[in-house]
Amino acid sequence: MANLSMTVNGKSVTATVDPRTLLVQFLRENLRLTGTHVGCDTSQCGACVVHLDGKAVKACTTLALSCEGASVTTIEGLANGGTLHPMQEAFREHHGLQCGFCTPGMIMSAVDIVNRRGNSLDEKTIREDLDGNICRCTGYHNIVKAVAAGAEAMGKGAAPVRQAAE
Amino acid sequence: MYAFTYHRPATARQAASLLAKKEDAKLLAGGHTLLPTMKQRLASPGALVDLSSCADLKGITRKGRNLVIGAMTTHAEVAASPEVQEAIPALAYLASHIGDPHVRHRGTIGGSVANNDPAADYPAALLALGATVVTNKRKLAAEEFFSGLYETALDEGEIIVKVSFPATSKAGYAKFRNPASRYALVGVFVAKRGSEIAVAITGAGEGGVFRWPEAEAALKARFAGKSLDGLKHTAKGINGDIHADAEYRAHLIGVMAKQAVAQATGKA
Lengths: 166, 268
Ligand code: FES
Ligand code: FES
Known about the structure:
Chain A is α+β, with helices and mostly antiparallel strands. Chain A folds into two domains: 2-77, Beta-grasp domain (Ubiquitin-like (UB roll), Roll), CATH 3.10.20; 86-155, Orthogonal Bundle (DNA polymerase, domain 1), CATH 1.10.150.120. Chain A is 32% helix and 15% strand. In chain A, a hairpin with a 2-residue loop joins strand 3 (49-52) and strand 4. In chain A, helix 2 runs antiparallel to helix 5 (141-155) and helix 3 crosses helix 5 (141-155). The longest helix of chain A has 15 residues, at 103-117. The N and C termini of chain B lie far apart (45 Å). By secondary structure, chain B is an alpha+beta fold. In chain B, the strands form four sheets. A five-stranded antiparallel beta sheet of chain B has the order 4-5-10-6-7. Chain B has a four-stranded antiparallel beta sheet with strand order 11-12-13-14, sandwiched between helices. Chain B has three domains: 5-53, Uridine Diphospho-n-acetylenolpyruvylglucosamine Reductase, domain 2 (2-Layer Sandwich); 55-166, Uridine Diphospho-n-acetylenolpyruvylglucosamine Reductase, domain 3 (2-Layer Sandwich), CATH 3.30.465.10; 171-264, 2-Layer Sandwich (Enolase-like, domain 1), CATH 3.30.390. At the A-B interface, strand 4 and helix 3 of A face helix 2 and helix 6 of B. The complex binds FE2/S2 (inorganic) cluster (2 copies). One FE2/S2 (inorganic) cluster binds next to loops of chain A.
């Protein structure tokens, strides 16, 4: 067992973990943050994407201990109280999900794309940069639309229009 | 995964001493090959020495005519680096097409080179550009470094510190990737440095990365895609698997080589 401390969604957390613990296991099982999903566990699907020091990574392929001292943001860290993050709101508005399994990873990846490439994204860029996220339901069209709209809304600092608990 | 002990040294020197002291220790770079392999229980190191805190293994610098990239520099960092884009644009391009964005945030040049996966992208660049792999013990030319399938000249306890590339803008990389794994079915890196021309091929060789002398000779006469017209790579010694048979991969070598030359000559 080894000691671990990091910041998750702005709160500092400490724990004693088996070195084998993956970041995604630590988030889901220790912290009960179950918004981060495990789709494949083989680095292919992107359901487990979180931000590690501001960069999108696959939490199924990162050891929790490698994140000692780091800052992690999960899907639970995006909304502002009851108000959805503009990217979350855009996914709802544009029907960017069906079963929703891939959605946390999609949204974390989408925010990462905006962080890297800015607020005005064309379809080709979005599709290329969603390369590491697989959706079995939607056929991607509405996801691409949602990402473009969410990116733009993030630029406007748009006050999201609806409440999460609606 | 089987149990292991975890260590995170702050310098390459500390990493080397841990590697020597701990029984059955392995280095952890970005972890995107090693961790999946451990999950499948195909690897079971007794100790992991995580290099992610070794600041002396990171960073990109221009030293005269050479571009020097620290072993723990990620693919995303190489792809986005103005130094790399200026010194060897083809190398930035190659890095920006490895895996997917999340993989590029973790995967490192040192890890890729040390693993020497026969379908990895970087080995083709190192071989074609005549790069030098600098370890904590010595300097190795790319052609002596890559010694076979997943095999390198690295000794036990030897750590890659950085890779040094001679700068050239006349280089190009084209790959036909497997859409599921994002690895190269065939990748061709073409580089011209002075009158020297090198064509290195990844993804296709039974023994890993290799050069294509006939194409190099043809391009030496004239450095243009047309020089490769009619030139075919033999299917002998070429990989065949469920994704592509040897004939198909051999054909792709010719196609990708032309695209790489087009990129190198600004005609892509
Ligand atoms: S669960 Fe991590 S990539 Fe699929
Ligand atoms: S909405 Fe079901 S997997 Fe994407």
